[in-house]
Write a structure and sequence with these properties.
Number of strands: 9
CATH topology of the domain at 74-177: Pdz3 Domain
Helix content: 40-55%
Shape: elongated
Strand content: 5-15%
Length: about 375
């Protein structure tokens, strides 16, 4: 009998242990559940235990609303550190070590537990009260209450209010003019580049100004000022002006400047025009060396010969065409006269045949 009772008590105890607990004890007597009461991290843990495991979403949950209060007038992010101004919106920025016992790393981790990904800096600056709530740190409950702020210059008790929040909200995205974010090295590089650009523009302007009144070249030259002279026809080279294949003129220097015949003639005509205009304004430069004059005359003669050959070829083509037309006309007239003659002979032969037939008929009739 005693063994049976022991088994019954054992089964009943096992069933009682396996049943889920219907309620959890409240450490604060349920006061955190009242409307308007603030909850801390322990309340969240207790609520999560009561609700059971929750499925994690793809994105963090939204952050609680900010109380629109801040302990600093200015805030700037520089090289993984936070620099702040505690007492005014002007002056030197100090490196922040902790606020209310939370350092930069802890605030950063808390800011990544809620809200859109990649906006953790904005959440720390604009919603610091929610970051304290997310991280389980103590935050002020009313405006103008003090909080402990530790900087590189010491530990201070700083008031938290809306005026500081408004001042910080308007400038934190632009580093609030903190000298730590000025980056003097980058500024020096930009200033040096600006000075270099202004210098190059000024140099080019002065060079162009003096170039307008400079003495023009009497010959065709390349971009570096070397004289361009006639050479052999190189079919594999391209003209540096019109990019046509086949060049006959090349630079006397080593810059590899080539020109085709057409572009050379156009450049030569422009150079001659510019030189004539210069000579009119400066008669003392009109005296030429005999060699240069002979070279110019030789080139002019070559141009005239080319023109004469072209016109002669056109004239010979025209005359040959005329002769061919005359020969064709003469041939057509000869063919026409021969055709007329053959037709005349044929008509005469037909007349003779008719007369012979008539005579033959008359002779037969007289015989009868």
């Amino acid at each position: 009998m005693s063994i049976l009772c022991t088994w019954v008590y054992t089964v009943v105890a096992a069933l009682l242990l396996l049943q889920p607990v219907s309620g959890q004890a409240n450490v604060d007597g349920g006061r955190s559940q009242l409307p308007g009461m603030k909850q801390d991290i322990f309340d969240q843990v207790q609520r999560n235990k009561k609700n059971g495991p929750q499925m994690k979403g793809k994105a963090p949950p939204p952050c609680p609303k900010s109380d629109l209060m801040s302990p600093v007038y200015s805030l700037a992010y520089v090289s993984g550190e936070i620099f702040v101004r505690l007492n005014s919106s002007e002056g030197q920025c100090e490196r922040l070590i902790s606020i209310g016992g939370a350092n930069f790393s802890e605030l950063k981790n808390a800011s990544r537990t809620c809200g859109p990904v990649g906006e953790w800096k904005a959440r720390i600056a604009e919603n610091m009260s929610s970051m304290f709530f997310q991280g389980g740190f103590d935050w002020v409950k009313h405006s103008n209450e003090t909080i402990e702020v530790e900087t590189e210059n010491g530990i201070f008790q700083i008031e938290v209010n809306e005026d500081k929040y408004d001042a910080m909200l308007n400038c934190w995205r632009y580093a609030c003019s903190c000298e730590q974010a000025a980056n003097p090295a980058g500024r020096a590089i930009l200033i040096a580049l600006l000075i270099g650009a202004i210098g190059f523009i000024g140099f080019d302007s002065i060079k162009l100004l003096f170039k307008k009144g400079a003495k023009p070249q009497k010959h065709v030259v390349c971009k570096k000022g070397h004289k361009v002279e006639e050479g052999k026809l190189i079919r594999t080279h391209s003209c540096d002006v019109c990019y046509a294949r086949g060049t006959m003129y090349a630079c006397t220097g080593t810059c590899g400047y080539d020109m085709c015949k057409k572009c050379y003639k156009e450049a030569k005509a422009k150079a001659k025009t510019a030189w004539k205009e210069w000579v009119v304004k400066h008669p003392e430069d009109g005296k030429k060396d005999k060699k240069e004059k002979d070279d110019d005359d030789k080139e002019d003669k070559e141009d005239e010969d080319d023109k004469a050959e072209t016109s002669g070829a056109d004239k010979s083509e025209a005359e040959s065409g005329k002769d061919e037309n005359d020969a064709d006309d003469k041939k057509s007239e000869t063919d026409k006269s021969e055709k007329d003659k053959s037709e005349t002979d044929k008509s005469d032969a037909d007349g003779k045949n008719d007369e012979a037939d008539d005579a033959k008929g008359e002779g037969k009739a007289s015989k009868e």
